[in-house]
Backbone:
């Protein structure tokens, strides 16, 4: 395993909402540099605040934000109203998977059924960037550090009776802070069961 410093991700270089300390030592959130989710920035439960868009997938956009009470950074995944059931299912699936082991490389989910304004929202652990894959591949040392983790994530998913169905570099992200060398698997909206009913003890229902 490569040392954490090798793939350290500076949170402020990744996220427009990165929490930092002001000159007087108090915590504050930097102003978002990108668009807001309409005019509503606080989730319907009052617990989380969205601050800036950091990515977009096939059916959802991802915003960086904070937990209001603690100013801890989180990620908020927003989907269209017609995709709300898919978003909730993805959140519950991630919760099911991450409950199996704290070190399984699946993001922790804080809230699965909440709204940002009128927009369905999934709130989860904030992660860093995807590994950089350039034309011709990646350096051998980087591949040697990443490949075992990627294989472990896929193996873990299969052990739970699920297949991801969208394996690509963008769906593996580094953690942040002390987990900046840790690889996480993300984006489970296409995942499906592949075992039959006789394996109900291991399946996600």
Residues:
């Amino acid at each position: 395993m490569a040392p954490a410093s090798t793939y350290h991700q500076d949170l402020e270089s990744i996220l427009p909402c990165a929490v930092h300390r002001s000159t007087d030592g108090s915590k504050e959130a930097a102003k978002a540099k990108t668009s807001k989710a309409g005019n509503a920035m606080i989730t319907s439960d009052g617990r989380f605040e969205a601050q800036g868009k950091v990515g977009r997938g096939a059916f959802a956009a991802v915003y960086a934000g904070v937990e209001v009470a603690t100013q801890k950074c989180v990620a908020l995944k927003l989907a269209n109203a017609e995709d709300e059931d898919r978003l909730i299912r993805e959140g519950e699936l991630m919760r099911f998977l991450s409950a199996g082991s704290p070190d399984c490389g699946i993001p922790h989910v804080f809230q699965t059924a909440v709204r940002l304004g009128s927009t369905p929202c999934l709130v989860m652990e904030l992660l860093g960037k995807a590994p950089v894959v350039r034309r011709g591949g990646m350096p051998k040392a980087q591949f040697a550090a990443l490949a075992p983790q990627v294989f472990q994530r896929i193996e873990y998913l299969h052990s739970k009776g699920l297949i991801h169905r969208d394996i690509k570099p963008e769906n593996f992200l580094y953690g942040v802070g002390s987990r900046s060398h840790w690889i996480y698997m993300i984006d489970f909206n296409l995942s499906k069961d592949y075992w039959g009913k006789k394996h109900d003890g291991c399946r996600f229902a």
User: Anything to note?
Assistant: Residues 1-40 have pLDDT under 50 and may be disordered. Residues 140-159 form the longest helix (20 residues). Helices lie at 11-14, 84-98, 140-159.
